[in-house]
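Note to self: keep these together.
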Amino acid sequence: MSESKKEASAKKEKKEARKIFSLYKVDKDKLIRLRPTCERCGPGYFMADHGDRYSCGHCGFTRYKHT
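Structure:
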């Protein structure tokens, strides 16, 4: 049984860490934020992109995208 657990854990792939470069874009001397910030928490808290909505992981605020 312990051998099967070792094999299963060896087969799991590690998630790639989120890179800071995916949150910002540098255009000449300006820094552009690619994701919106939370309206409740303020600057510094980016909202996660879930396809049809944005949500804040800190406070749970959800903003739906216009389709």
